[in-house]
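Hello, quick one for you while I still have it in my head. No rush at all, and the record is pasted right below.
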Amino acid sequence: MNLYEITKEMEFRLANSIDPETGEIIDDEAYAAFEMMEDDRDRKILSIAKLIKENKYNLEALQDRKRNLDKRMKTLKNYINFFEQYVLTLWDGEKLEDDEIQVKRNSNPSLVVDENLITDKYKFEETKIEKKVSQKLVKELLLKGEKIQGAYLKYSLGLK
């Protein structure tokens, strides 16, 4: 029997074993069955409570593990980013390769813009209140060699 069924059966046996007007026990066998079922119910509740407690510990352990993995992921991302930038500053951009890896500069750089530093000349009005940077225009001008304060092209490594 599940907990719900035990509770319903207990209600039935209690109703049949006690006089509703006086509150006295009128059927000793029904009341004894009620008490036995009460013990079963209590054991099931304790089992469920233990299961809840165990699952809380498991959840806590998983959350700790996830935090540790998140820290490791962040560290690895920073490590990769540092060395990519390091290689890009030292390398002349010519393709390099050996048996294991091929290094080349990606032909399509991403644009990095600090909208606070860039002048209004390169902004357009997206709404009547705010001007936005025309990233397409700025990227085209930077690719042509023009210097624009607050924007630069960022190349990444292509590894195969």
About this structure: The chain has a mean pLDDT of 86.
